[in-house]
Every structure is written in C-alpha cells, then in structure tokens.
Amino acid sequence: MANGNLGIEPEVLKAIYGQMTRIRAVDKAIQAGLSAGKFMFTYWPMTGQECIPATISQLTSERDYMVTTYRGIHDQVAKGVDLFGMFAEALGRQDGVNKGKGGSPHISDPSSGSMVTTAIVGAGAPIANGLAISAKERGEDRVTIVNFGDGATSIGAVHEAMNLAGAWKLPVIFMCQNNQWGEYTPIPDYTASPNFYGRAEALGFRGVQLDGNDPAAFYNGMKDVIDHVRAGKGPVFVEAMTYRMGPHAGVGDNYNADKDVLAAARERAPIEKTRALLIEAGICSDDELTALETATAAEVEDAITRAMASPVTPATETVIDVFADVTCVPQRGVYPERADEGALPADTKSMSMVEAIRDAQHIAMTKNPEVFILGEDVGDPQGGVFGTNKGLQTEFGKNRVRPTPIAEQAIIGAAIGSSIAGMNPIAEIMFTDFFGVCMDQVYNHAAKQRYMSGSATHAPMTIRVQAGGGMGGFGAQHSQSMEAWLLHSPGIKVVYPSNPIDAKGLLASCIADPDPCVMIESMMLLFTQKADVPTGDYRVPLGVAKVVREGTDITLISYGWMLHQALAAAEELAKEGISAEVIDLRSLMPIDYHRVLASVKKTGRALVVHAAVEFCGLGSEICATINEELWGQLKAPASRLGAEYAPIAYSQAIEFSQVPGAAAITARARATVKS
C-alpha cells in the first residue's frame, strides 16, 4: 500500500506502534501485578489512550518539555523515562527516578524532558506556562506540552493558564486527552459545553479537535500544531478524542460505562487497529509484530524484576530533599549556629522599605538576566500596588517585568515552571490573604517539587507578599498575617523583615536561594521605616536572628511590624526597672533556635509576639521548643501573645484591640517577670 494511501510514512507508523506496544505492555504488567498482589502502588489506568503520547513521541525530542498527570504512565513511557527507574519509583525504591519519594503520581525526569507530574487535577497547566516562558526568553525552539483529561477543563487553573498563555503567546500546547470521563462522571453530567477546544478561541488563540485513536490523522494534525507552536505563533489547545477503557483508579474495565459503549470503544481502540493496518499495508508481518511485542513484554518484565530487587527508600531519607541544605529542616534537638551577615558595605543611602526592596530587585536583575518579576500591576507607571517595582519595567523591559492577569494561580504556576527550568522569578502577590487563591500552587507544587522529585528538579523562586493588619480600614480579607499556614507546608522558606536594611538583604538572599522563598512585607512599614541602607549587593543570611536590644530579665521575640511594638514595650518596661532583650527573628524558616535559646538561657523568661492569630501561631511552636529545651532553667514558662481568634475587623476599635500593641506586650511581659 502506498504512503499516500496510508497518510503517513510507513516507518513512522511502525515507530508509533512500537511505542503503543511498550505502553500496552507496561499497562498490562501493572494491572497483572496489582491483581496478583505481586506489588502494590497507586495506579490510574490509561488503557485506550496509548496512541496520543506514542504519536507525539515521533514529533518531539527530550529537549521538549512535558507536564502530565497522575494518569500519565503512557506519557512517561513515550517521553523516554527509563522503565526501570519508573517502576522503581512507583514501588518506592532507592533506584527510582526520584529516589522513591514521588511515586507513580509525581514523576520528574528532566533528562527526558518529563518535568512535572501532578496529582492535582489541572494544576500542571500554569506550571507549563513557566516552562514555556523559559524557552521563549532563551530563544529556544522547545515546545511544552501539558497533558490533562477532559475533567480538568472544569478547574480554574486551566482557564487561568490558557488566558495567560494566549496573552503572552507562549510556546505551549494544552493537550486535553478527552477520554470521555471526569474521574467517575461522564461529560454530559458535568458540563454543557459541546466541546473543549472551542474555549481556546474564546481566549484568542487556536484550538483544534483531533482523533486521538487514529495515528495517521493524529500525527498529521499534531505535526501542524507543533510546527505552529515551535515557530513562535503562540499556544494551541488540542482536544484529542479517545476513550478510557479502564476505571478511574485500579484495574479492570471501566465499570461505570455502558457495556455497549465500552464494546464500541474497544472496537476503535488504537493498538489493535494500527496492528491490523501495518499487516494489511505490507509494512510488517504478523511474525515481526509478534516478535516486537514479545521483546517489549520482556523489556517491561526485566524492568519490574530489577525494580523489585531495588532497596526500599529508607527512613534515613525522611528529611533529605526538603531543602537543598538539610540543616534548614527544623528537627527536635538540632539547632545549628549560622554565621550572621557580618560587616555590611560602608556606602549607604537613606531608603524606605519600598526603596530597599526595589533596590534589591534592581541589583539582582542587573547581575542575572534570568531574574524577572511577574504579578498584577507590577509594570510602570504603577510599579506594583505599593510601587515596589517602580521604574524597573522602564529599565529592563516588558519581558523582565511582566504585568499579569488577575490570576494568582497563573502567576505562581508560571513562577514555578520557569524556576524548574532554571530561571529565578520573583512573583508578587498583593496581600497574604490572597494566598488562599493560589495555595495549591504554593504548598502542593512549589514547596513539594524538590522532595517529590528527589532533587531531580527544584524551584528557586521568590514570592513577595504584603501583610496588612493593625492599620485599620482594610477589613478581614486584606489584613491577615498568614505565616503559620506557610510554615506548616514543608519546603517553603519564609522571611519577615522589620526594617529596610534587612528587607534588602533578605530579599537578595531569597532571590539567590535554591529553594522557594516567601518574603512577607509589613504594609505598615513600607513607607514609615527609613534607614541608611547599603547601596551595594549584600545578603542577610536566612536562618539568622538578631538581638536588637540587650536585656537580662526577659526575652521578647518578634518579627515584622510587631518587632517595633516589642521595642516600644521594652522602653516602657525599662522605666519600671525591667530589662527586656529583644530578638528580631527576621527569618521564620529556617528559624534560628540557636540564638533564641541562647538569649532565653540568659534571661530565664520569654514572650513571643506576633500579629497573626495567637491560636496555632508560630509563637506556640517557639514556646513549646523553649519550654522543652530549657525546662528547669526557666524562671517562668515561655508564653506567646498574638491576635485574638477572629478575622480582622473593619472596626478600628476592634482591630486595634485584637492585634497586640505595645501596651498589651508590656502588660504580658510585666506579668511574666513578676509571676
């Protein structure tokens, strides 16, 4: 049969079938092993969807980026992830591609271009944008393909990502593998949309629908799509029509499907049709294909056998890969002493905190062309809601300072993806309250990527965010101090400066850090605090607290704008003959327990003060550690003082009483000393 009749080069069709055969062998081996109790791991079958990644594999290389989902074993196989490493990962073994720490739903293999696998529906789309940004900015012709199912089209993250990609003409393909089921729910039960590809047109870019079960048609359609994206013409949404013949999770058939529908889908299944076509066209004989299938099954079995012989990832690995430096992980009884910043540069200039933050970013962007800023309204003339970026877009251009849609998931996801690719983004979120809009991207992806990947990938990104409270007039949704939420998410570093000098030095350290960092900026201090700030590049190291006032009777521990309330309280206490030592934590994660404990050993008493709600706040953690470590040496139990357990009120009378001030701190410290 001639090539023209096939619609595809014979060797390409044979190669696609070869990949489909490998995928089917993997699927069958997993289902057989799980059914027999040979091994156990979580599995979401993709039976029937083999043609999509097998075909894409003939149009892309390991240089092209891929993001996929927990139902992405077929994508991983076709992308070129080593089968032994993949199975070892799924089994939680040391030789897994990610040291057994991510497992089957979290595979990352940058050597093959498989960058992120997410178990959160739709969450990979914003991250794919970041990978695409890196390729575009570096002048590379890589394409990024993000795979997801039809069910993910209901998630806001996908819409946010599509809108951003269209606005910025990013080289990304949104690959919707429409298998007709959103987990256990068929399409008509969860949307009235007649299709999904049409949503791209509504957002201003191209969408196509292709037959994901026909290798020739899908190959030709995808070649046109990939050529379009690789040429810099912007994103494309592909709705690849297929059918999932297995259940949402586990093994066997799709027991939610009507039997007649499932039987018809089996008739259209791509592997059997392609095999028959290869024989009918005279490209391969039955014996050749049988030999190929036998060899593939042997390859898979060998990978499984070796993977099962690999040692289980041991408990000694528990805190490895949380951060690049394991000493940053808080561990009971382990309190490292870190060197402080030492002498700062002599040349200084009087700066507000806003100016210091802007200066830190300016220096970082000048030194490193892969540092860029993104966030709502960050461009000129506004320069961000508080003007912390003013003038930077004018100097560095619109690609280095990127105003975004009002879409926090898209902002953080783009920062994650570009940082995984090696860039150093600074993402700005206006208020800590708004973390609620994008917390999935923060604590499920930025925070966990290093750990889930066994350090195969990591996210050296910075998030800058403002915290209100104690000022009056902003109300419950613009005034919270949300550091405790972040601190309870392993993998994120958090700093909270109290003055312009530390703001600049901490931000510089965050931008240069290999892990995701959040800098919380007290809105109250942005314009009210001025200091002689060094004009050159300097770093305030993360995990180093500072004694800002010496004392002997009690240690007051605080950070951010509450540090100034603590200092004011120390002045009042001094009038009563009580000598208060004041510690500015500066860095909350990693935390400097060494300096905290050294101070409390001297004074015998401690009071931790913060603007955040007292209940379950950082103060509780610090007090618990002090009381456990220094019990018997204390003159009184360590205590904490935070905001009352209520949203921040719009009423100033309520707000100014619910958030601690100098008078409340003075009273609590006085009572502690005299108890």
TrEMBL record:
Its cofactor is thiamine diphosphate. SMART domains: Transket_pyr. It comes from the Bacteria. Pfam families: E1_dh, Transket_pyr, Transketolase_C. The keyword Protein biosynthesis does not apply. The keyword Oxidoreductase applies. Residues 351-528 form the Transketolase-like pyrimidine-binding domain. Keywords: Oxidoreductase, Thiamine pyrophosphate. Coiled coil: none annotated. Homodimer. Part of the 2-oxoglutarate dehydrogenase (OGDH) complex composed of E1 (2-oxoglutarate dehydrogenase), E2 (dihydrolipoamide succinyltransferase) and E3 (dihydrolipoamide dehydrogenase); the complex contains multiple copies of the three enzymatic components (E1, E2 and E3). E1 component of the 2-oxoglutarate dehydrogenase (OGDH) complex which catalyzes the decarboxylation of 2-oxoglutarate, the first step in the conversion of 2-oxoglutarate to succinyl-CoA and CO(2). This is 2-oxoglutarate dehydrogenase E1 component. The lineage of its organism: Bacteria, Pseudomonadati, Pseudomonadota, Alphaproteobacteria, Sphingomonadales.
